[in-house]
Structure formats: structure tokens, C-alpha cells
């Protein structure tokens, strides 16, 4: 497996899920008794199992017996007066943990000396805990995020707090100001896997060291502690465990940050929070040209354009850069879903630019990339790709604005069952329609003839036409106007992972009416439709960016939602 995650047996999974701490040579459950003895990773070469401690908000699986040591006795939390100091402390703790882990790893690779059990206690994620003590009814606040549902303690582990500083400050300032929440910071019991602190390309096999030897002495990723229980509503409240503060904890976030590098060919830090997803490579050409034009503008807000493989174009270079040469020079073909980034920063240092990801074809890719993009807490993702038009009145090159989805992709049926409605988000729909009018210059009935709204059916089988006799009735009942293989998945993932979403597709063929892209007409279609389609997506994101605080919808929040966006 590419991620290097180890699969455990049933007994180990139960232990790894439970909130526990390493004390001497025992594991003590925070809400139960000592389950078994384990051997610490000391210089005697003996391995240690059950290394990963509790995930805040996830109920421990125990044998039901009471007692046990309170984990806070082992991991004292420091009270912090304000949000800025809390984030500073989180960053310092994270830097200390990762530096200790890197140093121990280097020493083992160079000298063969493994970390002892005391050193191992340093290799842990920082934890942030908020406590809300209500003096009366919980305040009724209209915003969708940064709000408590009930009094109590809330906690999460964090990775890369320096990078996420603007996001953390935005959430914490609201919670402290509006609720009087108290802040605590400390080291958690959740260890940082060694593979998440080494740089890509690092030589971890020198002096004959093997992966199994590293796993003996250093924390490794475990499937049992990387999950989406919080996002999927599977966590259960437990009196001895804080409620979840965020959808994704430190180890889940780190898992996705590494996957993003693998799939997109980009440093995850370059990925911007306004995202276009496409299923066709031709959109890349237009995005690179657009990016160079925006960079070269005198009043540009953008800093650089970044292509797969780390190729970067600055503002000074943009005016003379050749987009075709840049794309040709980029090793995009090495990556499954190459990404392109038009980078901008807000006044607080937060990323505010636009990313285009060519996700290829199919719901599996769509789910994979959005699973990982979600940990960056983007403001919006839009699907801008090609589709098959299902209505006689449509013309190749027309647009489809999805108001609903018939999800026959099957990939999310266990997580978001097909009977769960995925609503259209008014803010996104209005922005898309306004952008289409602005870019095409068309209005009213003229625009309506070219921009059709309705239901998109998303399949997991490109050759669904071979089953048209069976599929005809479902398409009819769904009143579907277009068919593709990604949009329903992208929208359902946005709904599931609380990322605002939208879909604008371009009709590339009409499978029910025998119309296909003819070779002689293909160039004219691509030059006009693809260029305008991409510009509509970019204009939509510009409009949403200008009023991003109104974008995050309460439609995407559950009744027991974690406070953080």
C-alpha cells in the first residue's frame, strides 16, 4: 500500500481506537482498566504495539469496566489566555515533537541507536482543548461555523499549526469572544508517524535499515486511527472523552497531506482554497494561460503560478512565459491527478488563490481527491467538466447547471446513502448563473437556451449506454438532463465533508440522439466552449471569494456539528 499504513488484527484495532496512555510498560484506558502489557521501544530492540492514543471525540471501545488513570494526569494541559498565544504554543509543541522525531530518526539511520521509551513520549501531536461553561442558554448564532452546540469540553489534535494559523485564529476568536471558551494546550497521546515528518526523496534505507526495523522503533501510520468517524457522524458522546473540536484530527490530516503530494504532484502548501475540478486535460491549457494573464496584470493579487513537479512562474516572469512550453516542461503525466495553482495570500497570510485539479474520469478519482482536499478546509470546489446531454433541445457546447443529482456512482452509498438528498446551495448556484451571463454576454431567454438547469445523473460505468433498456426508466424518473461520472460524487463529498460545492458542465455529445463531436467541428467547439466554460468557473470563484463569509451554509451542518469549520 502506497501510504505505508499497517493493518492490525481485531484485538490491536480495539486497543488503538481506545483512549490510552503509555505508562511504564502498560497501556491504561482513559475510561477502563489496564488491558494488557506491552513492551516499550527501548534500546533492547523489543517492539512496542498499541502506540496510538485517544482520538478526541471518538468513543473508546472498552470492556466496560470502570477505573483507570485519568489521561490528563499524564498529559497536563496548559491554560492559555488568548487565541494568538494558543496557536503560538501549538506551533512550538509541534515543532518540538517533529524535531525530536527527526533527530531520533537520523541518529538511528546513522548510528543504529533507537529511541528509548522516554524519547518516544516526545513524538506526539499537540492537542487543543476548549471548554465552554454556559451560564444560561446556549447563544443562538446565525453563522454556520465556530459555534458550540452544547456546554462541555471539546478537543482535537493538530498538525502543521503554523500553516493553519489563519484558519485556527478565525475559529478560536469567535469561540472565545461569543462563548467565553477557555483554551488549553498540551501534548496529546497520539504519536506522529515517522513517515509524516520526512521530506519526499529522503533516504531511509541507508546502512541497510529496513522498513520493518523502522516500524519497530518509530511510530507508523495505523488504519485503526485514521478515519472519518467524526465527519460521518459515527462518533458517540462519552463522559470521559471531550467532544470533537474539528472534523479531522492531526493524523487524519497528515495522511491526506501526503496523499495530495502523491496524486497531484504539488506541495500541499501550494493548494489554494478555491478549487476547480475538471475531467478533461484541455482545461489545463486555458487555466495556465489565464494564470499568466492574471499574474502579469499591474493590479494582480496573485504571487505565482505553480505547475505539477514544482515548476513556478513569478509575476516578473509571467509576461514573457509561454503557456504551451510550461505545460510541456511540467512532468504532469507522472501524476494521477495533476494540479495547477494560481497562488494568492490574504492580509492575514491565508491562501486565497485558485487551484485546478484534473481529476480524470470516474467517481473513484473524484472521491479520492476530495477525501484529501477536505482536510485543507477549502472554501469551495466546483466541478467544471464535460457531460452527455440527454435532451433533444440541447446543443453541443451548451451548459448544464446541476440543481440535483441522481447518484448511481455507488461509491458513497455506505457513507451518504442514495436516499439522502444532496441540496443545491443557493449562494453557489446564483454565482454560477451570474458568471455565465457575464462571460457569455447573454441574458434572459438567450441565456436560458444555452444554460439548462436540472438533474445530472452520475454513473460508475462509462458504458452505461449498453444497458439503456434498463437505465431508461431511471433517467426518465429523475428528469435528468445530463450524464457524467464525477459530478454527483463531488457534490456528495462536499455535502459529507462540509465543503460548499457546485457543478457546471459542458455538453460534449448527445448519446440518446446520436450526436457526437465530429472531427471537423471539434476544434471550434473546444476553442469556444472550453474557454468560456473555464472562465465561468473562475468568475464564479471570484464572486464567492468576495463574500466568502456568506458562502458557508448551515445546510451542510449537522445537529451535533464540531465547532470548527
Structural descriptors:
565 residues; alpha/beta; amp nucleosidase, domain 1; Rossmann fold; five-stranded mixed beta sheet; five-stranded mixed β-barrel; 15 helices; 20% strand; globular; disordered N terminus; AMP nucleosidase activity; AMP_nucleoside_Pase_N; Nucleoside_phosphorylase_d
Query: On the 0-100 scale, what is the average pLDDT?
Result: 85
Supply Rg: 25 Å
Structural class by SSE content: alpha/beta
Residue windows where pLDDT falls under 50 for at least 5 positions: 1-53, 60-74
Provide the helix percentage: 25-40%
- Give the termini separation: 31 Å
* Biggest sheet character: 5 strands, mixed
Q: Reading side by side through the largest sheet, how are the strands ordered? A: 4-7-5-6-8
Number of helices: 15
GO molecular function, one term: AMP nucleosidase activity
Family: Belongs to the AMP nucleosidase family.
Catalytic activity: AMP + H2O = D-ribose 5-phosphate + adenine
Function: Catalyzes the hydrolysis of the N-glycosidic bond of AMP to form adenine and ribose 5-phosphate. Involved in regulation of AMP concentrations.
Write a compact overview of the structure shown.
Residues 355-513 form the Nucleoside phosphorylase domain. The protein has 15 helices and 18 strands.
Description:
The chain is of the alpha/beta class. Among the domains are: 71-249, amp nucleosidase, domain 1 (2-Layer Sandwich), CATH 3.30.1730; 385-548, 3-Layer(aba) Sandwich (Rossmann fold), CATH 3.40.50.1580. 33% of the residues lie in helices and 20% in strands. Strands 4-7-5-6-8 form a five-stranded mixed sheet. A five-stranded mixed β-barrel has the order 14-17-16-15-18, surrounded by five helices. A three-stranded antiparallel sheet has the order 1-2-3, with no helix packed on it. Strand 1 (20-23) and strand 2 (26-29) form a beta hairpin. Helix 7 crosses helix 15 (519-546). The longest helix has 29 residues, at 83-111.
Amino acid at each position: 500500500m502506497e501510504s505505508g499504513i499497517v493493518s492490525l488484527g481485531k484485538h490491536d484495532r480495539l486497543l488503538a481506537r481506545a483512549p490510552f496512555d503509555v505508562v511504564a510498560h502498560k497501556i491504561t484506558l482513559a475510561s477502563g482498566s489496564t488491558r494488557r502489557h506491552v513492551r516499550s521501544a527501548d534500546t533492547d530492540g523489543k517492539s512496542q504495539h498499541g502506540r496510538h492514543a485517544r482520538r478526541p471525540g471518538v468513543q473508546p471501545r472498552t470492556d466496560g469496566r470502570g477505573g483507570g488513570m485519568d489521561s490528563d494526569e499524564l498529559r497536563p494541559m496548559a491554560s492559555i489566555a488568548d487565541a494568538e498565544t494558543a496557536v503560538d504554543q501549538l506551533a512550538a509543541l509541534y515543532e518540538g515533537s517533529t524535531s525530536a522525531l527527526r533527530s531520533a530518526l537520523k541518529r538511528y539511520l546513522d548510528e543504529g541507536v533507537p529511541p528509548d521509551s522516554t524519547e518516544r513520549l516526545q513524538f506526539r501531536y499537540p492537542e487543543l482543548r476548549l471548554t465552554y461553561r454556559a451560564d444560561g442558554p446556549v447563544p443562538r448564532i446565525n453563522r454556520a461555523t465556530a459555534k458550540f452546540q452544547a456546554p462541555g469540553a471539546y478537543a482535537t489534535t493538530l498538525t502543521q499549526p503554523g500553516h493553519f494559523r489563519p484558519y485556527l485564529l478565525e475559529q478560536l476568536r469567535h469561540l472565545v469572544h461569543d462563548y467565553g471558551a477557555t483554551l488549553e494546550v498540551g501534548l496529546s497521546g497520539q504519536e506522529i508517524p515517522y513517515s509524516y515528518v520526512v521530506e519526499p526523496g529522503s533516504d531511509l534505507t541507508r546502512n541497510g535499515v529496513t522498513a520493518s526495523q523502522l516500524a519497530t522503533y518509530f511510530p507508523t501510520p495505523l488504519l485503526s486511527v485514521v478515519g472519518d468517524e467524526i465527519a460521518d457522524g459515527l462518533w458517540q458522546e462519552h463522559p470521559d472523552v471531550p467532544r470533537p473540536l474539528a472534523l479531522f484530527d492531526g493524523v487524519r490530516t497528515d495522511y491526506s497531506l501526503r496523499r495530495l503530494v502523491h496524486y497531484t504532484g504539488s506541495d500541499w502548501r501550494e493548494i489554494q482554497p478555491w478549487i476547480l475540478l475538471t475531467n478533461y486535460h484541455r482545461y489545463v491549457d486555458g487555466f495556465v494561460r489565464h494564470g499568466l494573464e492574471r499574474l502579469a496584470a499591474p493590479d494582480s493579487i496573485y504571487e505565482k503560478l505553480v505547475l505539477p513537479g514544482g515548476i513556478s512562474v513569478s509575476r516578473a516572469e509571467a509576461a514573457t512565459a509561454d503557456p504551451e512550453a510550461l505545460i510541456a516542461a511540467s512532468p504532469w503525466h507522472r501524476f494521477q491527478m495533476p494540479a495547477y495553482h494560481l497562488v494568492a495570500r490574504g492580509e492575514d497570510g491565508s491562501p486565497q488563490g485558485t487551484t485546478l485539479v484534473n481529476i480524470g474520469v470516474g467517481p473513484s478519482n473524484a472521491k479520492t481527491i476530495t477525501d484529501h482536499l477536505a482536510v485543507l478546509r477549502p472554501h469551495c470546489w466546483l466541478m467544471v467538466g464535460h457531460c452527455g446531454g440527454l435532451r433533444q433541445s440541447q446543443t453541443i457546447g451548451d451548459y448544464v447547471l446541476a440543481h440535483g443529482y441522481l447518484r448511481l456512482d455507488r461509491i458513497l452509498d455506505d457513507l451518504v446513502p442514495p436516499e439522502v438528498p444532496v441540496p443545491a446551495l443557493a449562494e453557489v448556484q446564483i454565482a454560477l448563473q451570474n458568471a455565465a451571463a457575464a462571460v457569455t454576454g447573454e441574458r434572459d431567454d438567450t441565456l436560458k437556451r444555452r444554460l439548462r438547469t436540472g438533474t445530472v445523473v452520475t454513473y460508475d460505468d462509462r458504458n452505461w449506454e449498453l444497458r439503456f433498456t434498463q437505465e431508461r426508466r431511471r433517467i426518465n424518473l429523475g428528469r435528468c438532463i445530463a450524464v457524467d461520472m464525477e459530478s454527483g460524487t463531488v457534490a456528495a463529498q462536499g455535502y459529507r465533508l462540509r465543503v460548499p460545492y457546485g457543478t457546471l458542465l459542458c455538453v460534449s455529445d448527445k448519446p440518446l440522439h446520436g450526436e457526437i463531436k465530429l472531427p471537423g467541428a471539434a476544434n471550434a467547439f473546444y476553442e469556444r466552449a472550453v474557454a468560456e466554460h473555464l472562465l465561468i468557473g473562475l468568475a464564479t470563484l471570484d464572486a464567492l471569494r468576495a463574500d466568502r463569509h456568506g458562502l458557508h451554509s448551515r445546510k451542510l451542518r449537522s445537529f451535533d456539528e464540531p465547532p470548527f469549520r
